[in-house]
Design brief:
Length: about 270
């Protein structure tokens, strides 16, 4: 059964899309079958994986609002194990349209049910808000991965996000976990980056990934070529760090599923 990970932080520009695209690509390159699901109306994760949004007949909006089968919108990418459920700007309307729908926060979970077993990982790129799209992602997800930018006010809003995760655990998804916290755009030459990293580690403890994503120009250039960094420049630092993150995520997933199996055995 595929593991669903929501890449989320309501703060804008912290590296959600960069992480969704590159973590998905690195997991796929390591042999996992991956679906990158774009839930951000900006659709940058879709174009970052080479999807021509103008040529699409339908996108994740049609799945959420019109009940389209998600299998019908899935696109292939340049990597053989990597697939995309794309978003276009049409999705911007969904936040308002979802309000009128019964059980509105469980629509994505239901849509994923039929395809979850086909993938090893489903990575969801969330929008920079805590609205109904993010609520759908957190309800459908097994875990949330939180990127935090090593900048001023890094932790601002994080307690609100943790509160939202707690509410989701108490209401629509009791099994939701925090997958991990990822430090992004780290610049080791500045005291600020080092300070932020320390603060985040104090707040989240062992949940913080050992892999830290530095500022890397290749990571910011790759999206304009519609390629993940491991395709655009496989020898870059950006490619190395996202490969390392993918290894951590895969290792944690293996350990978690072993723990779950052992627990089940004990209960039997
Ligand atoms: N490690 C990095 N090094 C250099 N540039 C980066 C890095 N990570 C992200 N960027 C750049 O920073 C900008 C914001 O990143 P990204 O789009 O991934 O953030 P986001 O959280 O998804 O944004 P939004 O909240 O708008 O969806 C982009 O231009 C991206 O190319």
């Amino acid at each position: 059964m595929g593991k669903v990970i929501a890449i989320t932080n309501q703060k804008g520009g912290v590296g959600k899309t960069t992480t969704s695209v590159n973590l998905s690509a690195c997991l796929a390159k390591s042999g996992k079958k991956v679906l990158m699901l774009d839930l951000d109306p900006q659709g940058n994760a879709s174009s970052g994986l080479g999807i021509d949004k103008d040529s699409l007949e339908s996108c994740i909006y049609d799945v959420l609002i019109d009940g389209e089968d998600i299998a019908n919108i899935i696109q292939l990418t340049m990597l053989k194990n990597l697939f995309v459920a794309p978003a276009t700007i049409q999705l911007a309307g969904a936040e308002v349209e979802l309000v009128g729908i019964v059980s509105r926060e469980t629509i994505l979970k239901k849509a994923l049910k039929s395809i979850k077993k086909e993938y090893d990982f489903i990575i969801i790129d969330c929008p920079p808000s805590l609205g109904l799209l993010t609520l759908n992602a957190l309800t459908a997800a097994d875990s949330a991965l939180i990127p935090i930018q090593c900048e001023f006010y890094a932790l601002e809003g994080v307690s609100q996000l943790v509160k939202t995760i707690t509410i989701v655990q108490q209401t629509s998804n009791k099994d939701l976990e925090i997958e991990g916290v990822l430090l992004t755009m780290f610049d080791g030459r500045t005291n600020l980056s080092i300070q932020v990293a320390e603060e985040v580690k104090k707040f989240f403890g062992t949940k913080v990934y050992k892999t830290i994503i530095p500022r890397n120009v290749r990571l910011s250039e790759a999206p304009s070529y519609g390629e993940p960094v491991i395709v655009y420049d496989p020898k870059s630092k950006g490619a190395a760090v996202y490969n390392s993150l993918a290894k951590e995520v895969a290792k944690n997933t293996k350990e978690q599923s072993k723990k779950t199996k052992d627990k089940k055995k004990q209960e039997e």
